[in-house]
Amino acid sequence: MGTPEVFDFVVIGAGPVGENFAQYATEGTDLTAVLIEQELVGGECSYWACMPSKALLRPIEVETTAQHLPGVRGAELDPEALLARRDDWVSHYDDTGQVDWAEGAGIRVIRGVGRLSGERQVTVETADRMVVLEARQAVVLATGSEAVVPEVYAASAPWGSRDATGVREVPARLAIVGGGVVACEAAVWMNALGSEVTMLVRGDRLLPRTEPFASDLVRDALVDSGIDVRLEADVSECRRDDARDAGVGRIHGGEVQLTVAGDEVVVDELLVATGRQPRLADVGLETVGLEPRGIADRPDWLVLVGDVSGEAPLTHWGKYRARVLGEQLAARAEGRPEPVAPDEVPVPQVVFTDPQVASVGLTEEAARKACANVVVAKVDWSSAGGAALLRDDATGAAQIVVDRASGCVVGATFVGSGAGELIHAATIAVAGRVPVHVLRHAVPSYPTASELWLRLLESLPQDLRRGTVGAQD
Ligand SMILES: Cc1cc2nc3c(=O)[nH]c(=O)nc-3n(C[C@H](O)[C@H](O)[C@H](O)COP(=O)(O)OP(=O)(O)OC[C@H]3O[C@@H](n4cnc5c(N)ncnc54)[C@H](O)[C@@H]3O)c2cc1C
Ligand SMILES: NC(=O)c1ccc[n+]([C@@H]2O[C@H](COP(=O)([O-])OP(=O)(O)OC[C@H]3O[C@@H](n4cnc5c(N)ncnc54)[C@H](O)[C@@H]3O)[C@@H](O)[C@H]2O)c1
User: Locate the FAD/NAD(P)-binding domain: which residues (predicted)?
Assistant: First the structure.
């Protein structure tokens, strides 16, 4: 295998997070990084997750919006063109552009499976040989996450999120197990593509990590669009003849028969969307005396970032952490003062259903646990003319959660058309700890959906708005 090739940073996994880490750890320095990738540079997000799903969802949202805008006639979905758009946005599963970007930034790319093989050492299994690498500063695991498939479905070769985003054959009847983000978003595009969709949700609401009012609004919208949403629907059995891997996005066998709370549900395909877990298996942890469960107790030279870290499994969050860590480790390597990041940074998320659910920071329930005294303001989506103008069937709501002691917004949730583009204002307010009496002077333009902020601030008690608040009730 020869003498190890030495880099400052050896990064296993070239998803968005690995790429960002390598960029920020080397930019403007003499430090070197290598990215090891077993599939496509750009990772799950670029080819099988964020990009294809959003490429599919946007035309659907535009079409349904157009149907509720008097003055527009003839907006119609073209399924073939929709799938072609998806293929364009995933660059036809070709990562040349991202490899060129990495190499242009001075980052080496090695294709193969990377595994730890000793302290600061990684061995890469490429198509034709083993390559040994050594990290002067750190080995960075950015290996992402993998879907968790409950045992009951394992023998039925169900669809995973890759099949849903990479759909080629549209099943006439599709059951989706799960009520999280993947399940809700996939239900929208599979329904629009013509599947008769049944959602089998174990819990008593969709999107269990968001505000309950958001769960209700999304459920109502999914039901209105013709989706059968079944809550508290436990699947006890799953049978399928001729289960096989027919390729990504193709139907994986015969009919699927599910026993759901005593009822039989028969479908042509089953999508299992029951969550993801950090991809820590088969990365060679045992070679340095570690195992996935004890990963928190690892040496300084081994860094985890992105989905594999167990933090919020979101591209923007992983990339943020990669930027921060990259800059910090570069500074440490060069003996410069390390840039400091705040201890608490709020995590935003947008669920691209219709209506969209955009949230940041704490939910009301979490805020009540974290703060002694919390004030909540909630308004209807159509309370602001600019929001109502976006489509004539506008439904939704906006909510902010304010910590009375500091007068600052600690959480916000917007549910409505285009809500995703509104959330950054809330993120700035929460991250910047801007008191609401100051936010009053951030004037939203008329008539934009941002005027929801006016309505929200007007709903707060006067003392909070005026900034005369103490720690009183
Ligand atoms: C259907 C779906 C839709 C999503 N939509 C959104 C969205 O709209 N917005 C959002 O913020 N998040 C979204 N996410 C989450 C997002 O995809 C992840 O948070 C993001 O991809 C994490 O980036 P990452 O770089 O940590 O991991 P990944 O993107 O998974 O990249 C990890 C890379 O490491 C490689 N790898 C793993 N092990 C090895 C190894 N041993 N050797 C070499 N290479 C290896 C993998 O091949 C992969 O390319 C979505 C997820 C799903 C499933
Ligand atoms: N727009 C976005 O930002 C976006 C889109 C898609 C995915 N993602 C990310 O990907 C991650 C994974 O998404 P996901 O939807 O797979 O996970 P999730 O954690 O959001 O939802 C999992 C769902 O499956 C249910 N579930 C878990 N185990 C089950 C079981 N044994 N039987 C039946 N139901 C079960 C849960 O109750 C929950 O409803 C998310 O956490 C999210 O951060 C983000």
Answer: 7-291
Which atom of ligand 1 has the smallest separation from the CA of 282?
A: 41
Let me know if residue 382 belongs to a domain: yes
Query: What 3-state DSSP class applies to 25?
Result: helix
Do 408 and 390 belong together in one domain? Answer: yes
Assess whether the C-beta atom of 150 lies below 6 angstroms from ligand 2.
Answer: yes
Same domain, 166 and 130: no
- Closest ligand to residue 40's CA: 1
Residue whose pair of structure tokens reads 């069937």 in the numeric block: 393
Domain span at residue 268?
149-274
Q: Please work out whether the CB of residue 364 comes within 6 Å of at least one atom of ligand 1.
A: no
350 Cα: distance to centroid of ligand 2 (angstroms): 14
Helix axes 50-67, 181-192, angle to 10 degrees: 50
Identify the three-state secondary structure at position 274: coil
- Asked whether the bond before 342 is cis by omega within 30 degrees of 0, the reply is no
Residue 165's CATH number: 3.50.50.60
Q: What is the pLDDT along the chain (473 residues), one digit of tens a residue?
A: 679 999 999 999 999 999 999 999 999 999 999 999 999 999 999 999 999 999 999 999 999 999 999 999 989 999 999 999 999 999 999 999 999 999 999 999 999 999 999 999 999 999 999 999 999 999 999 999 999 999 999 999 999 999 999 999 999 999 999 999 999 999 999 999 999 999 999 999 999 999 999 999 999 999 999 999 999 999 999 999 999 999 999 999 999 999 998 899 999 999 999 999 999 999 999 999 999 999 999 999 999 999 999 999 999 999 999 999 999 999 999 999 999 999 999 999 999 999 999 999 999 999 999 999 999 999 999 999 999 999 999 899 999 999 999 999 999 999 999 999 999 999 999 999 999 999 999 999 999 999 999 999 999 999 999 887 654 44
Instruction: Please choose from 46, 56, 156, 202 the residue to mutate so as to test ligand 2's pocket, defined by most ligand atoms within 8 A of CB.
Output: 202
In a domain? residue 343: no
Do residues 417 and 390 make contact, with C-beta atoms less than 8 angstroms apart?
yes
Atom 24 of ligand 2, residue of closest alpha carbon: 274
Residue 342 lies in a domain: no
For residue 144, the CA-to-ligand 1 centroid distance in Å is 5
Measured between alpha carbons, how far is 127 from 124 in angstroms, rounded to an integer? 10
Rounded Cα distance, 382 and 391, in Å: 10
Residue 44 CA to ligand 1 center (angstroms) comes to: 4
* Residue type, position 335, single letter: G
In a domain, 172, yes or no: yes
Both 240 and 120 in one domain: the answer is no
Strand, coil or helix: what is 413? strand
Indicate if 137 and 270 belong to the same structural domain. no
Q: Is ligand 1 within 6 A of the CB of residue 35? A: no
d(CA 346, ligand 2 centre) in Å? 20
Total tally of structural domains belonging to the chain: 3
